[in-house]
Every structure is written in structure tokens, then in C-alpha cells.
Amino acid sequence: MIKFLLRRISFGVGVLLALSLFVFFLFFVAPGDPAAMIGGEKASETQLTQIRKNLGLDRPLPEQYVRFLGKAVTGDLGFSYRNQQPVTKIIMRRVPATLSLVIGAVVLWLAIGIPIGVMSARHPGTLRDRLGQAFILVGLSFPTFVLGMMALYCLYFLPRQAGFTLFPAGGYKAFTSDPLIWAWHLALPWMTLALTIAAVYARLTRGQMLEVMGEDYIRTARAKGATERTVVWKHGMRAALTPLVTQLGSDIALLLGGAIVIEQVFGLQGVGALAVQAVNNQDRPIIIGVVLLGGLFIVVANIIVDVLYVLLDPRVR
Amino acid sequence: MAVLEVRNLRVEIPTEDGVVQAVRNVSFSVRPGTLFGIAGESGSGKSVLTQSIMGLTPAAEVSGEALFEGRNLVGMPQSEMRKLRGGKIAMVFQDPLSSLHPYFTIGAQIAEALHFHEKISPAQARARVIEMLSKVGIPDPAARVDDYPHQFSGGMRQRVMIAMALVLKPALVIADEPTTALDVTVQAQIIELLDSMRRELGTTIILITHDLGLLSNVADDVMIMYAGNRMEYGPADRILRSPAHPYTTGLCRSSPANYEPGAKLAPIKGRPPSLLATPRGCVFAPRCSEATPQCASAPPPLRVFDDGVESLCWLEAAPAGAKPVNAAPDFAAKAKPEKVAEVRNLHLTYDVGGFFGERRKLDVLKGIDLTVWRGETLGLVGESGCGKSTLARAIAGLTPTTSGSIELLGRDVGALTPSEWRAMRRQVQVVFQDPYGSLNPRRRVGSIIGDPFRLHGVASGEERKARVRTLMEMVGLNPEHYNRFPAEFSGGQRQRIGIARALALNPSLIICDEPVSALDVSIQAQVLNLLRELQQELGLTYLFISHDLSVVRHLCDRIAVMQAGRIVELAESEALFRNPANDYTRVLLNASHVPPKLSPAVGRKLLETREITR
User: Do A228 and B56 touch (CB under 8 A)?
Assistant: First the structure.
């Protein structure tokens, strides 16, 4: 197990290295001169040269990369071109909003998606199944931002017109100051994000459960005298769980790297919003930082999923 | 009083194609402490019958009565039924691996049954589980209780299933083909275990099986089912020795064990009917060798005989059955002194583990020496995992070997160039076990059979089509079905497709890897006859792999017994069966249940004839 873990971790480190190499060089072949951006339009040629020298931009690319990597290992990703603050600090300020968004949404989408999938699978071909399938289809085909706009219109704008505030339009309030306000502000983004992703989980759960409920060991459980609830939620769900865990791992990792659309719609100052701003500003150190953070999440999530897989399935232990 | 009294049970399953009449008006009663056997081919309704009594077929519409300890199980509310399931009536299923939950320990799974029905502390439950495991013969039960199903062998898993069924000391255990997925020596142990548990705990057992030989050894009463009907019912020793119904006779006659080796089997012609339509006459009439015009026009009455046998048939006396045609044993001189394949000191070793566990070597073949002579049928028998299929695959060039040599038609295949190998492949063809899985479902039968012609550039266009049709005719398929898909054929027909494909290039050696083990006994007899006829006509050489000793004895000239990667005995068939030299061969021979020889019913009198509604 430890050998396996070490191998997975070293593989993950390799992925991150390759990713950093890729984004680093990508941005250096991209057009635009960082020095001009930092110096401003009126900067003279000597000033620009000075800036380049300060940033190390006059060095050969490989050397720049090695130096960047050396610092990155210690958590120093350089400084924003825009406001000269440390990249790590800027990103870290944005993490709580994204993290809060994702955690709440995960709980919601699992709570919605799995029961719908199970209900659909337990009564295949019936009205309940068709309702479940309709939910899946609508959820999968609805763009997130449309759903977000609708939520805003119905649950924020209309009540406001009627003279009261049902939900705020967005923004992020720290959990530490008041958990209730925190949740109230995040309610709309949570619902929006959860509803679209719940469809994916409902479909996955339905497919898995349809297969599992036809297995011989389900019949054995019934023959033992298990109640239907035990049969479905213990024997069935336990076997259907593994693919759900895999999907959940990559979904969480992807969203932690930036839930761009949702953050834009609801004005959440999260990692996704930061990425958009950084691209608009051509703020390379921030972009590289955000990409590496996203990569880190995915690599870590994959390792966790692999370990969970082994823990969940005694046959591969 | 009977433990289970079933009266006029009827099970109908609505499907997209119509209503499947899975069980039609079946009555029987199971006496306490006895072993009641239900036999029939697949699709006869024997599993549906018991599962619908237990309320495990939610889609089915069940009518009639099934009285268990005086209470009717049919129409009983699920909440009541649940208390009986596991507690009073337990079930053991066919495949113990898929019937046990892979993610829970066996101890947890058995204890769960206890918790469903009794208020019991986890520690007490555990103690009961361990006690039960030791009773069913699991060695070191206190340690193994926390193991997962995949850590047990097939036979041990079935013991676990039996422990789970018996832990609540139910009055009735329904065992649905409990030994079909197991090796022959393990089968004997499991039946022995069930039987001793029955005697020790006084449990009544319903044993569902297609194996008449097995039933004749252990059952007190039997019921023979066909297409949802109860064809024959009564004491096992009477029915299986002197059947009153032509279908039972046909089943017994389909087993190679009832014949001189090499004789042509008398199979039941045709195949089982659709369960969607109810024929006007007897369901078996189209396949019956005794059928009269009356059989097709009016439903048969129930004949009750004085020895307790009841038969749903127009016949009043015991049927003669189709006469077995005793072909002269012709194989004595048929093998020509020409080596088709010669295997010398063949080894095959796999490296396994390494990902989580320790790396180790797994020896699959440990020095095999074997010669196949032209024109003979060489049988290869052994239990699962002994390496018999691997050996066959190695000879066919489908599996690389570690060391040793394989010579085909005098040429060492190790020394062949790739193009020579390609040419050599024409000489060795394989008929695979599973006729459902080994044919590509999306390709037409014509192109499946024509594949060898295409791959080896032998024939194309109209010529290929013509040759495929000839082949189809040769194996007893209708050449007009050229454009059909495999799904449109029955199991036996699909195996004919596989045989036709193997014959296409007129190979020197045909390797049959368990070609009939997925087929029902009546269909199996048809395919065995076909293989034999083809050999006589075309002078084919077979390497025939099977776990079924009666099949091997029937078809093979010589038999090689394999155990754990070695050939432990190789002898001419009859010599092997009469004087097995090896201990393991003796164990194999003793473990197989041979159906009793049929004998005419002496002094059986017809007591009464009842009209039966359907």
C-alpha cells in the first residue's frame, strides 16, 4: 500500500511538473510584453530594461523556468504584474469563497442526485422513472448561467420588486463572521451549481443501480429477509458507490480549480473569478498560479480516489 | 402434513412480447424431512416456480396456492413474507460467487440474516456464525469469518451460502442448482453436506437441478417440468428408473451415460417451445417420439399409477422411448499412425502479483507431453484451473508458452515465421464453450462462418457464399438463415455455427473446448451426435475438453486426465473407466453421478385418469 501510494504521488508530481513546464512556456511564446505592462505606457526603454532585469526576464528561458520552479517548491509563485503582491497570497485570499461554494454544492447535489437516480432505477419504466429521466435531461442540457440568471430573477429580483429580500444577489461573506449569513449568501449559487451537477449524478446512480439491482447478491439479500430499504441502500448502494466516488473526486477537483461561470454570475470573488481577471489583465504569474493550483487539486483528488478505491473494494486490496 | 403444499400454481410474466406462461397449473407436496427434486431443462420454469412462491419475482402474476405450514404464501403481504424468507424458508443459489456480496465479509453477511430475524447482540451473532461455519466444514472458522467471498474457493463459497441458509434453522431450504457452477468432486461434497445437514437439523430440502443422475442418488420425490408444466411427479426411484412420461424417458436417453460408448445418442428432437403461446394439445407433442394425432389436438389427462407416479400424458403404459441406435464401435482401427500434434515437455508460467502483493510465479502447465493422432478423439478432462483450456489454447497458438515444444503436422511451431504461422492456423481450429459469448452479436451468421475463407483468402464472392451454405447444411442449419444474426438462433444452433466456422478450412485438428457444457442435455445430445457424424464423414481429429466424464467417455478414444498442470493419466477410454490407475482419476470417477439405467416398469398399474385444466 505504501509503495503504491509513493508511486501514485511521484506520478502526480510528474504531472504537475509537466503542467508547469507547459503553461510557463505557453505564456512566453504568447504575445505581449510584461515589462511594458508593469512600466505603463510612458515608460522609457531603459526603464523597461530595468524592469526586465528585476524580473529576470532577460535570462534565457530554461534558466527562468528553473528559477521559477525553485521558488514554486517553497510556495513562492512570484508577484502579480498588476499590483506587485505575492501570487500565493492573492490566490489564497480567493480560496475560501470557492471552497465554500464547492462544499455546499457537493452536499446538495449528492442529496438530490443520488435519491433521484435510485428512485428512477428502482421503478424502471414507470412514471417515477420518467420523471427522474426528465430531471436528468433538463439538468444536463441547461447551461449553468441560464439557470443562475433564472434563480437570480425569481429569487432575488422579483422579491426585491415586491419589496423584500429573499436572497442576496451574491457576494461572499466569511463563514467565520456569521455562518448563517455565509450560507444565506451562498444559497443561490449552491442551488444553481448543485441542480446542474445533480443530473450527472442521478444518471450515474441510475445506471449503476439498474445494473447492481439485477445482481445475484441482491436476490440473496432479499432471500435472507432483508427489508427493501436495506436491500437498496445497504447492499445496492454499497456496490454502486465506486464509480460515484471516482466521479465525485474529479468533479470536486475541477470546481476547486475555479467554478468560473457560477462565480461570475453571482459575483463571488473566488479562484475562478480571479482566473478571468488575470487573463483579462495578462497577469501571467497569477494565471500560472491558478493553473498549477487547479492541477494540484486534480492530482491530489486522483490520489485520494485511488486510495478510496482500494479501501472500498476488498477484491483489489 | 406436508411442509409445502402447492396447488394449481400458475405464474405469468408480462413482457414486451406478450405474457410468458412460466408455470402452468403445477401442484406438488413436499413431505417433511425429505429431499424433493425438481428437474427440467432451462426455461422449464423450475426456478421461476420457487422464486415466485418466495415473492422474489415482483413482475410475475402468481395465482393458485402454496401452503407453507398451513399459510398461503401466494398473495401474502411483503412484510409477512419477509419474516418467512431466510427465517423459515432459506435459499441457496447456483453461483456462490455472484450470490455473495463482494464488498462484505462472509461473517457480516451471515450475521445479517440473524439480525433480520432475531434480537441478538453482535457478539452472540458472531459466535453463532462461527459455529455454523464450522458445521458446514469451513476450516479455521474463527479466523475466516472476517474474510471476503473472493478469498474462498468455489466449493467453500457454496458452504458459506449453505451456512447462511441454515443459520436460522429454517424448516425448508430451496437449493437452486447449488452444484452446477462447481467442479465434480466439489459437487459431491456439497450434496453430501446438504444431505447430512438435512438429517442433522431435520430440514426439508427442495433441490432444483437439471442433473437426473444427481437426483436419482439423493431425492425422495421428484417432479419433472417442461415448458412450465409438471410432466411427471412421484417417487424418485420409480420415475428415474422407469419413467412413465416420454419426456422423462427422452431426458434419460439423452445422457451419454445410458449408452455404449461410441453409440449414436437418441436425443429429443427439436427444441423447447415458446412460452408465449398455449398449444391446444400437449406442450411436448412436437418433440415427442410417441406422439399421436390426439396429443396435438387435446390437452393430455393426468395418469395416476399405483406406484405413486403421476404423468401428464395420453400414454397409459410406459413409453418405449426412441430406440438408441447402436452404432458399431468403429474407433478401434480408425486412428492413423500420423501425428497431428505433438506436445513435448510444455511449460507455461505466469508472473502474477507485484501491484499490491508479492511477485510470484504461477505454474499453469508443468511439463505436458501429449500426442494427438490423426482421426482420433482425444479427451482432456480435469477440474477448473487444472490447465486444460490453457493447454488447448497453447496448441492452437492463442497463448504463448514458456518452454517446451509444440509440433503441428511435424513442424515445430516455435520455429515458424509469422507467415508460416498464419498458414498453420488453418490447420487448427477451435470450437469455444460459450455459444452466446463467442459469436459477435452484430455480425451475420454468413459472415461469421465465411470469416476463415476471407481471412485466408480462400474464397470470395459467390463462391464463398456457396461454401458457407454447404457448411451450414453440413452442420444441420438451414442455409436460408445465411443473413440472420446469432441472437436469432438457439444455444444448440449457435454451437452448430461455431462448428461450421471451425470446419470451414478443413483443418487437421479441431479443438473443442467444453462445446456442450452450456447446453441442455437434450440439445447436448444433438451436438454430440453431430460431432461424431462429422468425424466419420470427414475423418476429423478432435481434441475434446470437458469436465463431464460421461460425455468424454462417449465421444473419446483416449482420455488424458489433468490435475494441477500435469497429465496424471492417459489411457484408452474404456481402460481408463474400468481400471483407473491414478488416485485422482478414481476420485473424479467416483464423484460423478451416473443416472440409473432405464428398466421397464414391472407391474405398474394405472389407477385413475383425471382431466386437468390448464
Answer: no
